[in-house]
Amino acid sequence: MCGIVGYAGKRQAAPILLEGLSKLEYRGYDSAGICIHGEKSLQIAKAKGRLQVLCDQTENGNAVKGIIGIGHTRWATHGAPSDVNSHPHLSDSGKIAVVHNGIIENEAKLRTQLIAKGIQFRSETDTEVVANLVGYYYEKTGNFVTAVRKAVSRIEGSYALGILCEDLPDTIIAVKKDSPLIFGYGEGENFIASDVPAILKHTQLVSYLEEGEMVIFNASSVRFFDGNGDPVEKKREQITWELDAAERGGYDHFMLKEIFEQPKALRDTISPRIQKGEIVLDGIDLSAQYLQDVRKIYLVACGSAYYVSVLAKYIIEKTCRIPTEAVMASEFRYAEPVIDERNLVIIISQSGETADTLAALREAKRLGAKTLAIVNVVGSAIAKTADQTIYTWAGPEIAVATTKAFSTQLAVVYLLAAYMARQLKTMDEETYRAWVTGLEQLPGEAEKVLTAEKVEAVQYYASRYYGHHDAFYIGRNVDSAICLEGSLKLKEVAYLHSEAYPAGELKHGPISLIENGTLVVALATVEPLFDKTMANIREVKARGADVLCVTLEDMAQEAQKQGDGILTIPRILPVLQPSLSLIPLQLFSYYVALNRGCDVDKPRNLAKSVTVE
Ligand code: AGP
Q: From the CB of 402, is ligand 1 less than 6 Å away?
């Protein structure tokens, strides 16, 4: 979604803002803009389209002089992508400039009230309402801080705001509610940003703004205030990511880099949690006594994280024998779930900022459930709101299509399931030992799926099948959950229509869509169900489908008899097999997308972190 960068220092602001915005491109956007305070006046440059358009328009920022400014990449919500709807927005008076992430829910009412006061609007955006509201109060009070406070007290919805005032050439005010915002401490310069990569080149020392907090800063000083306007001391946190982690590092795309980073991400996530043969989840309080009283576990998430939840249902029910349900976060709140303190609600999110997931978490807490979050971004809203958090140590994930975050979320699910089963005594010693060993070996096994030979096989089938118009992913049991993720990847990056069905469900309707040349990707890694999946493959082949089968190396010969194409993965502990079967599907989507000429890291209409409902 939208991205914000702000800078106050001694260097020229515009090139720094543009470079920072380029690091936020992964969030998804359709226009970009900057406002630089040129000592006497606010200078705005903004343009629809890629950031490069703005860079060309401003000679990479060199044409807009000034040492303080705010920048923005916009993902349209109110009003189509256009030059005029791009941020920053100026107040009607021209005194106030605003960049905004989030949605102002009462914008229509506020707009009507401001128009009634004679204030004119130029865009269709909700953000211009904020600019005009601050402008209105600034006219009335002559005080920038008071004006922002008054405006913020009247707006409803979610926002991270960066605000400049023409009369104060050295001040930026920023406010946050339900949309991420960080403050970065530099030497003789300071920053704000939506996310760490935007400022990582300049500083690794940051503070995360909490709900309702405001920061007022210039090049050399900073003050933080809570929602009541009282000063607060903020903890300074050291970012441990290296700059390289947020760069492409020789790969053509972040997505490919992140696929190949999976063995490392798995190692970083798993190895600190296995100590002397025992699974250790630091800071997690899930006692046997508590777990015995849990009547149902809910897993709540969106998109790929929801598909991890679907897998987790199989894994947790099998090992812990507690009824478990996966629910899409966007549906959770409005379904009036039957939840109280006897429920454990597990929230899964890479970004930790997804609006629907955060809202579901708050609802679960309100209903009295114990909440546990599996999150990748340290200090994110979900990490802070949940009662307990287990981090996936995937490192920064930049590509919109998630890969290594999915793998590490799944790894945490395995660790958690085994940990809970151990507490509950629902897993015998021998099985527990096999899980621990299997998890320790998982990163190495993932490496085996990323060898040149395996990748070339995927490239071959991608170049053979990329021209198809429709694809079906079928599989049974945990394979069916991996199919959901494989199918989503193909839609996201290759814009190829695809559906995922449990293989046994196909003949209850969707098989009517199988015709000559329909692509069917069949997963057959669950050995006890192998023959049944083969029978399903025969059914679709009889109707003309081209079948690409993903199976275990030692079952390939048998599968070859049915499928047109075969991709193989090594045999590991059966319950952990999904961690490997996923990888060829990620690669397949990536190479199909390349063959179709798609912009893999910036897929159309998508945003990395979806901070609006
Ligand atoms: C996956 O490739 C997606 N881009 C998307 O489905 C994502 O998983 C979803 O929006 C949830 O995001 P989160 O993990 O940051 O909460």
A: yes
What tens digit of pLDDT does each residue of 110-128 get?
999 999 999 999 998 999 9
pLDDT digits (tens, 9 = 90+) for 557-592: 988 888 789 999 999 999 999 999 999 999 999 999
- What distance in Å separates the CA atoms of residue 538 and residue 533, rounded to the nearest whole number? 9
Q: Using alpha carbons, select from 450, 200, 402 the residue that is nearest to residue 306.
A: 402
* Residues belonging to the active site: 2, 608
The strand ranges marked E within 38-137 are 42-48, 68-74, 89-90, 96-104
Buried b / exposed e over 42-62, threshold 16 CB at 10 Å, is bbbbbbbebbeebbeebeebe
- Residue 610 pLDDT grade (very low, low, confident, very high; cuts 50, 70, 90): confident
> Ligand 1 within 6 A of 609 CB?
yes
Q: Which atom of ligand 1 is nearest to the CA of 609?
A: 15
pLDDT tens, 12-25?
999 999 999 998 88
Alpha carbon nearest to ligand 1 atom 16, residue: 349
What is the reported pLDDT for 297? 98
What pLDDT does residue 2 have?
Answer: 82
Q: Is 123 in the pocket of ligand 1 (CB under 6 A)?
A: no
Closest to 558 in 3D by CA, of 572, 538, 586: 538
In b/e form, how buried is each residue of 297-325, taking b as 16+ CB within 10 angstroms? Answer: bbbbbbbbbbbbbbbbbbbbebbbebebe
CA–CA gap between residue 431 and residue 319 (Å, rounded): 10
Q: Measure 302 CA to ligand 1 centroid, in angstroms.
A: 6
Beta carbon of 611 within 6 Å of any ligand 1 atom: no
Report the side by side order of strands in the sheet with 470-475.
Answer: 497-502, 470-475, 519-524, 546-552, 565-569
